[in-house]
Amino acid sequence: MRAVRYHEHGGPNVLQVDDIERPDPGPEEIRVAVEAAGVNPVDTYFREGGYEPPTLPMIPGSDFAGVVDAVGERVTEFDEGDRVFGTGLGNDRQGTYAEYAVAPADRAARLPDEVGFSEGAAAALVGVTAWRALVDHAGLDPTETCLVHGANGGVGHVAVQIAGAAGATVLATASEEYHDELRELGVDAPLDYGREDLAEAVIEAGRPDAILDHRLDQYLDFDAEVGTQGVRVVGIGNTRPEAGFENVAAARGKEMRLHLMSMYNTPDMAGVLRKLAHLLAAGDLRPHVSRRYKLSQAGDAQKAVLRNSFFGKLVVRP
Ligand SMILES: NC(=O)c1ccc[n+]([C@@H]2O[C@H](COP(=O)([O-])OP(=O)(O)OC[C@H]3O[C@@H](n4cnc5c(N)ncnc54)[C@H](OP(=O)(O)O)[C@@H]3O)[C@@H](O)[C@H]2O)c1
After folding, report:
1. Which atom of ligand 1 is closest in space to residue 306's alpha carbon?
2. 272-281 confidence digits (pLDDT tens)
3. What is the pTM of this model?
């Protein structure tokens, strides 16, 4: 099969397409003929060596959508020919930028017939992340207001839809060019993250009870300032390794709660994927695919996911 691999750590140019043997599934695994693989910032962290993959050479990619092509002997929930999507690969095991991928059955779920493979792959890692952040950790309820930072990005554009499906009032930060699309996804108040009076604008739109923050080094004090008393902040990312408060007392005064998380720790990934499948089938979750890449363009896709501005997700299609 054809698979993108890196044989050493480095920039996007270490990615190459190799012809390798098709892997066989273990007893609790499925083999998937991959139709689409999501491109996530974390794929680049493994490639660069900031996160350590288990082996080299390594196939990048966490997300997959495709058709089950072989089933391990102890797998009961899937049959050959099932359309599936899933995530959580490319870290402790080989990834998904390939014609076939082997996944533990408990990191996959059925993809509803009406949902395209690219959209399925685009919904997986970011959907599990947003669900875990807003539903499991923040415990968002329908009477509340939720603020999502970076709402045009992969996680953000799915998070605003999950918050909306929960019935919450949704505020979002994003460049002005994406505000119309965000309104179509149900965002009540899209706000330009570049504006100088951003804090006042958020407060005017309604102080958030829960905040999804992907840039903790930039927004921790801001979150404390704009949030309600007892605001719950879920932190999923940062641009520098260190982050802190300039005004701890203000955050203390708010009784701010901060929950840091990694999607990879999700205890029941298949369970969350099934909930996402339900939202996808109901039309309450519409992942947007901004651009599709071939396997030979994987380096361009990984460059773009870090450097370019886009709405939604990038996917690789083998
Ligand atoms: N902990 C976890 O489990 C977990 C899971 C998934 C992702 N993450 C992390 O979360 C972050 C976002 O992931 P992603 O997949 O959504 O990435 P993405 O698709 O590249 O989106 C990044 C978003 O950040 C926005 N942004 C850039 N500068 C900003 C600023 N100053 N203020 C607010 N927003 C800004 C971008 O807007 P522009 O388009 O205007 O540049 C874009 O909307 C990454 O660091 C990723 O590693 C963590």
Report:
1. 20
2. 999 999 999 9
3. 0.98
